[in-house]
User: Fold this.
Amino acid sequence: MPIVQVEIIKGRTVEQKRQMAKQVTEAITKTLACPPEAVKIIIREMEKENYAEAGTLFVDK
Amino acid sequence: MPIVQVEIIKGRTVEQKRQMAKQVTEAITKTLACPPEAVKIIIREMEKENYAEAGTLFVDK
Amino acid sequence: MPIVQVEIIKGRTVEQKRQMAKQVTEAITKTLACPPEAVKIIIREMEKENYAEAGTLFVDK
Amino acid sequence: MPIVQVEIIKGRTVEQKRQMAKQVTEAITKTLACPPEAVKIIIREMEKENYAEAGTLFVDK
Amino acid sequence: MPIVQVEIIKGRTVEQKRQMAKQVTEAITKTLACPPEAVKIIIREMEKENYAEAGTLFVDK
Amino acid sequence: MPIVQVEIIKGRTVEQKRQMAKQVTEAITKTLACPPEAVKIIIREMEKENYAEAGTLFVDK
Assistant:
């Protein structure tokens, strides 16, 4: 606790995920007053055919 | 907002997802009174070994 | 299967949810070729202080 | 209903998932008083670069 | 890790949740070979107007 | 996109959520190279009887 889930379109590098995990954890611990060990982050990656806005798949944009 | 997540077993075509995204977005905008741009749809696909009903994996059915 | 989760800001009536559940189920069965009994819909309602876009809570908009 | 989602790091065998689905379903039906048919289990598998604790990706541990 | 989410209709007692958490944790640790400390369980409770099967809200059944 | 879900135990103030939303959005935009408008954050709050670690509900700790 807290458990954070981040949904993104596929294509980020491991280095981007590494920096994101580090900085989101810092943002959470600083603002919600909890130790870093308590923060779990799950990253979910989606193919462009698996995300839609306004009824249109990203693969069609 | 609204954010819609649709969990399905793997195996649908892109055309099926395209139609689903379109028609679910229409159903949402019509019934919940929101603009199409507000509707985000995330499709999650599962392997048959990653879904169970009544304690039995789909891969065993 | 399919399992659908719909995240909305609090404030819709039961009648709106009723129509939404009905029409989203129809959209899913028609486009993904599955029986209505297979479609489960979970509605999650959020307070305006529990949703943010562009870093701003809805309660502050 | 109940719908159970289990997030794990990739690497379990189908046999492990089979036993997990069976025993978690038993635990749910026994303690929450519902029939086995009502229990749906979704297993989500993550790559080690998609999970972080204390700001560190598992791939870096 | 593993992180388990259990979606149920409102109405269970704290004692039922206590037993469920205990027995699901045992089922997970035994079948997936992980220590009890690694297992986190999130229980989500829904009102009957927030769950539908076959296009019908539970509040209408 | 990205869509971020943050699960926390109930009890944070609106000001804490406000700061969290702001700083998590900054962390995401800086590390994943996306505009602030693209970042949606859903906060989910749990009662202490709805979260367990190592098989024990938080309400019992």
